[in-house]
Amino acid sequence: MSVEPDALRARIRAAIGSQTKSNINVLSSLHAVLDDMGYIPQEAIEEVADYMRATINEVWGVASFYTNFRFTPPGENVVEICWGPTCHLLGAPEILDAVQGRLGLADEGETEDNRVSLKYNTCLGACSQAPVMMVNHRLAGRISVESALRRVEGLEAGGGH
Length: 161
Ligand code: FES
Hints:
This protein has 161 residues and is α+β, with helices and mostly antiparallel strands. The chain has helices at 5-17, 26-37, 42-52, 56-65, 85-89, 92-103, 145-156, and strands at 77-82, 109-110, 116-121, 133-135, 138-140.
């Protein structure tokens, strides 16, 4: 995902300016960018500082405090594997192992070609269908190693959107 610098800044400013709540601050502005772009580019730190009349250090201090902010673009597709107790008991470890192996990852994160982001989840809220995974916000229940791999391979082949 490459975006022209001016277009990137315009998009960031639009996201910051689109906030409608009465209490707009550095944190809410960072969230607005994250919601729109899926990550917080370096330029957003500068734009939020400008908008909130804060220093870059102040904005960076807030941004780096929260572990749910990410500063690199997510993969084109997002695969979440539930690691919660029910899914764990019903086979999540084997599924996670297989999916990581297929994607060439040792942990959460992005594949080298940035086609897939892998995330763990502590409960996707569908324990009755465990084990569960989510691919681009679509839930799949009672998955097996084979069906999980099929879904992931479909993304690598260009599907998933
Ligand atoms: S533990 Fe996996 S969906 Fe709840």
